[in-house]
Amino acid sequence: MNVDRSPRFVSRLTRDTLALIMAGGRGSRLKHLTQWRAKPAVPFGGKFRIIDFPISNCINSGIRRIGVLTQYKAHSLLAHIQQAWGHLRGEFGEFVELLPAQQRIAASWYAGTADAIYQNLDIIRSHRPKYVLILAGDHIYKMDYGEMLAFHVENQADITVGCIEVPLEQAGAFGVMGVAKDSRIQSFMEKPDAPVAMPGRDDAALCSMGIYIFNTEFLFEQLIKDADTPQSSHDFGKDIIPSVIERYRAYAYPFRDPENSKQAYWRDVGTVDALWEANMELVSVTPELNLYDEDWPIWTYQEQLPPAKFIFNDDDRRGMAVDSMVSGGCIISGAKVHHSLLFSNVCVESYASLSESVVLPNVVIGEGCRISKAIIDKGCKVPKGTLVGQDLGQDRERFHVSPNGVVLVTPEMLGQKLHHAR
Which stretches in the chain have pLDDT values below 70? Predict the structure, then answer.
């Protein structure tokens, strides 16, 4: 079946679509970074939160009816969404709707990804979408969901699963698919011990991105059936998808760069190492993720701040930053910053040096500190003369050190009990 993929046709598809973003995850592999916030609320890229990427993708794709499902320590996430996304106009039928776990159907919280959608079926029905786009709220990427919707309709699919190619040794952390030549899914295993390689490749597997498009009535049927199955774990990857691939039309949509048909940029920043590495990639000369792309902007709440400021120019006390990204409100006061990413309102005091580090908002790095290969959490006041990343043995006594040697510093580790999620 050949389908018109003109912008007008695709815009009709996106108008008939409701996007649901799964943003309730704790993200325990991020360690202390998710002690007071959900994973989708973790800051990324100098001024954003992780949740801004899937929401921006929806807006840029023409999907302006969006629900965000929250559960774990959601205050920071809810506050950010209200600030960043409250500008959508309800009278035009566009919204970002917050859907916290509220025991609407049962006395339990969300028991799995499928159960989270099931518990909001009445809300989904009230919006009367033709298609439901289900997204993970904790990945970094830029994607036109309109193209995936056109692919879904073109193949007369009941469900379409967004997929990427993952090195075989890493594929065990994903849902792994086997597909026919026409992209129809023939097998699906969630986090298999021995992932199966793609046809014609012995080094990679085809894996789910946690992105699904359902025909709405089909989704309702499968969720109700799953809810009535006592032995189910009520999860899309473990239960729903494996149960439908034989009897229904399930297709895999490969996520590729439209300019060169190669694997598109996609990052799961679910560990301290992965979060640090993805931020460090942005500091490079030509990063794969282009935050300066005017055709596909990433939107967020824009705090009103003065420009970054660099002061003092003595030989031993020069305020400077090289190969770095420095956000508004920062003051580099007679300190040296190299190959680092600084979020808003960071102050680096005299004689301090900072390299290969990610510094979240509202941090003060005291005089004479030396910090290397670190993530400094929001609100830290790093005392004068503190050494981080110079001796990992000593760092392990006070901070968290990742398997790849990234040092995570939080206010609590410094004895600063902030007890807030933002």
Answer: 1-5, 91, 103-107, 419-422
Domain that holds residue 273: 7-283
Q: Which residue has the tokens 């040794």?
A: 169
Closest C-alpha to 331, from 365, 303, 360: 365
The DSSP bridge partners found for residue 177 are: 188, 206
**183 and 329 co-located in one domain:** no
- Residue written as token pair 């699919």: 157
> How many folded domains does the chain comprise?
2
Asked whether 156 and 248 are in contact (CB, 8 A), the reply is no
**420 in a domain, yes or no?**
no
CATH number for position 69: 3.90.550.10
User: Residues 123, 193: one domain?
Assistant: yes
Same domain (yes/no): 194, 266:
yes
Distance CA 304, CA 300 (A): 12
Residue 301 maps to a domain: no
Distance CA 170, CA 79 (A): 35
The verdict on pTM exceeding 0.90 is: yes
Dump pLDDT digits (tens) for 169-204.
999 999 999 999 999 999 999 999 999 898 888 899
